[in-house]
Please model this.
Amino acid sequence: MLSPREGVRALPSYHPPLAGRDGLRLDFNENTVGCSPRVLERLRQVGPEQLARYPEREPVEAGVADFLRVAAAELLLTNGLDEAIHLLCETYLEPGDEALIVVPTYSMYRIYMMAAGAQVIGVPAGEDFVFPGDDVCNRITPRTQLIAIANPNNPTGTVAPSDDLRRIARAAPDAAVLVDEAYFEFYGQTLLAARGELPNLFVGRTFSKAYGLAGLRMGVLIGDAEQLRAVRRVSSPYNVNAVALACLPEALSDQAYTERYVSEVCESRARLERTLDASGIQFWPSQANFVLARVGAAASFVACMRRRGILVRDRSSDHRCEGCVRITLGPRAHADRLLTALQETCEELGIAQGAPWR
Model:
């Protein structure tokens, strides 16, 4: 009887609750207003001939490389940043290898690493989710072949000092080190400049968050040119679809639109954090487009917010995140709706009664 290999049968399931998402979507860290109008106009211009041809990735890669100020040979466009993670696992991991992550973090690291047959070592974050740089270095062994670090981290929004990231890459010269900068635009600091001194370093970016292109699935992996040649061997030459390739240059050309959105999100993030602080609700200062907060009965909190038309994500199952929810931020109008629903929900559940809201 046909059966999947043992490593696949042992994989944990990841089923994001995407169905029935009616309301203000503050649950998946998406852009809450959508992409630039220039992208929509370009979509209207996509014709049948363009859809009938296999997509050509390289010209758009060259434009993205110019935008990021890297060489085209140092960059690979991917079907979302998820594919970049998957490709690194397929390129560098053998069954029995070790792969390191810091927990809690993005769930797909573990799944892709396990699918490649690796033993996943979860290094717990420190108190208040402080990045455990020393602990990561201490867990590196000759079997370590891949280290994945989200910076800012999901679901905590916390960050790793750049000196720690460089130190880890130097401590594991025979391992691929991925610094996942999916939330870079909301943080503003990058490790891209270190790629010349660290040939085992990869930096990942996505256009799903700040640029509002989650539905088009577009990510990018940057690293040493020689290492990228190996990753390209694993990648399909047609991994990124023609519509996404047509739209990405327009998204990048409208930086004013993206910068306005990011600015408003950061303002909303500060408003939410001030409100949580004043109300005595525990949270962790974030450098991403979301905030993690401990509300107690997370499932009840999520349900109450949903009844008020606001979707937030229960993260109670993550390491040390018991009773926590993750709340995505949008522009000012969305923050107004969020804070109103938050006040009503907290009053209904008896959380931080009498707190000063807004």
In short: The chain has two domains: 6-30+256-349, 37-253. DSSP finds 14 helices and 13 strands in the chain. The chain has a mean pLDDT of 95. Residues 97 and 118 are 5 Å apart (CA to CA).
